[in-house]
Amino acid sequence: MKRNGGGGQASKLQAAIARARQGLLDRREPDGHWCFEFEADCTIPAEYILMMHYMDEIDGDLEQRIARYLRTHQMVDGGWPLYPGGAMDVSCTVKCYFALKLIGDDPNSEPMQRARKIILAAGGAARANVFTRIMLAQFRQIPWRGIPFMPVELILLPRWFPFHFLKVSYWSRTVMVPLLILVSLHRHARNPRSVDVRELFVTPPERERKWFQIRSLRGGILLYLERAAHNFEVIIPWGVRRWAFRRCERWMVARLNGEGGLGAIFPAMVNAYEALDALGYGPDHPLRRTAKKALQLLLIERGDMTYCQPCVSPVWDTGLAVLALQEAGGAEEEITKALDWLQERQLLDEPADWREYRPQLRGGGWAFQYRNDYYPDLDDTSVVAWAMHQADPVAYEESISRAAEWLAGMQSRNGGFAAFDANNTHYALNEIPFADHGAMLDPPTEDVTGRCVALFSRLPDPYGHTCEKAIKYLTRTQQSSGAWWGRWGTNYIYGTWSVLMAFEQAGIPCDDARVRRAVEWLKSVQHEDGGFGETNDTYDDPSLAGQGQATPEQTAWALLALMAGGEARSDAVAKGIEWLLRHQGEDGLWSTGLFNAPGFPRVFYLRYHGYSAYFPLWALARYRTSVTPG
């Protein structure tokens, strides 16, 4: 593309932006917001089937529709991956196999034989993760000693104790509290068809001894203490246990969140639904009916298939779509309508877990979902406030002020910002037996910090010191390659975009050494055809950083990062823009079947369907702004 923006190339760019803008506007909901599909691996839809059989609330048509989705995603080797192109994951594959067998798939069929063979080759179902083994214990497939000791009395521990629920992430809290109820009651699935999966074990479960893998010396010590503590469960006074059950119940019920569900995430919601049943809430009880409705609202129909989303993303999608449209121009009325929709959802005085350690701080955040009052997040809050400030800092002054005040109050000691909490850095808790997923915590990350810096840099004092501390954190966390790690998007391309965008807003010059190193890294990983891509394998093997099949959103992130670094007129950016133009769809948008974010790195991955809609538009429009005369 000619970088002077003249002639036919400029017309081509203008037409592409117009089509992309209209394509994005066409995806709006009637009230002016956006909510794209949000897809995870097959663990979630498999768990929906398992839940129906656990509760004996089986919808025959629905489970067949979900089964078609599961079968479609089985790999040639028989397993199910955590993301397209990934390796077989034994835990995901065990759940998919069990779900398909529950609905009636013949275990002697060729696909089921392939699945069983690869599970056994990986060591069998005993090698599955803790969450999968808890499910197997609930379905009477393994003994309770095969899962961590999780007494309901954990809810009673004081805050000074090494373990406390405020010391772990919000997602860990909301998943664990109802799980404590279920595990302490040794609650079993109803399993009306009496299906078992004993064929998935190398050693019969009753004779298996190696349920827990020791990952470190500290982990070994913690496992020893946990196993020893298990022996004392029988002497816990019933009065203490009854008190603990009541505390868990009150905690959970207070956060059920209406049709948004507990924590507004599927794993917590399904545990809460099953816990309500275990505590005696009947099928017609309003809380149980609402909890079930919350789960049903996560279902997405796709032709003759159905899958279950891990949650929904309307606030995030709407905030980012607005930023893209602001860059593109020509949609002012639609932008205002979307921002007004967002303004109505700001969380100001609602009860929230963060208030337990920031009692004097005023609220001002936004949640990721339609509703998640107890758990606003910093990433959504910075994006929405940024969009509001860019649109009309006067009209949205109060919302922006409250958002910035809350964000500044949630800065962690090291200068960074986490997704939901502050100073959630008790890393030893990632080594307790329950935490084999390594995702108990919500520590500060480069990507969230970058977006907070981007907002604060637009605002006057008193946020200068807050911003300065955050930039020092970002400087410390830059990789030797020049890139930054991405916690909430894949991976180093996402992290580097997040930080370079922040540096630009903060006025850090393009010739700054940090910027130059990041720019050179991005150029070094660009494909010959102009695209950029990065596989989720990079979370296991950082040497693969910046490598992978090119996607529209990763190309857009790289281009936005390069332009933030002063490279708008470079050959690299011109080639990337050409790549986006070549891959634009007839509907004006872009598409990819690849996953573009981790839920938990190495454990759980996601596909934000909206990313390939608004990020390429944002990149094209930014390029036009940067290089087109007038």
Write up what this structure looks like:
This protein is mostly helical and 630 residues long. The protein has 22 helices and five strands. The chain has helices spanning 7-25, 43-55, 60-72, 90-102, 110-121, 130-138, 170-184, 217-230, 238-254, 266-278, 286-296, 314-328, 332-343, 378-391, 397-409, 446-456, 464-476, 492-505, 513-524, 552-564, 571-582, 611-627, and strands spanning 38-40, 299-302, 305-308, 597-600, 604-608. It has a three-stranded antiparallel sheet, with no helix packed on it. Helix 14 (378-391) runs antiparallel to helix 15 (397-409) and helix 20 packs antiparallel against helix 21. The model has no long low-confidence stretch (mean pLDDT 95).
What share of residues are in beta strands? under 5%
Q: Please state the overall shape, judged from the principal axes of the Cα atoms.
A: globular
**Percentage of residues in helical conformation:** 40-55%
Summarize the main sheet. Answer: 3 strands, antiparallel
Taking the alpha carbons of the first and last residues, their distance comes to: 18 Å
Structural class: mainly alpha
**Widest sheet: strand order?**
1-5-4
Task: Encode the helix/strand succession as letters.
Answer: HEHHHHHHHHHHEEHHHHHHHHHHEEH
- Cα-atom Rg, whole angstroms? 25 Å
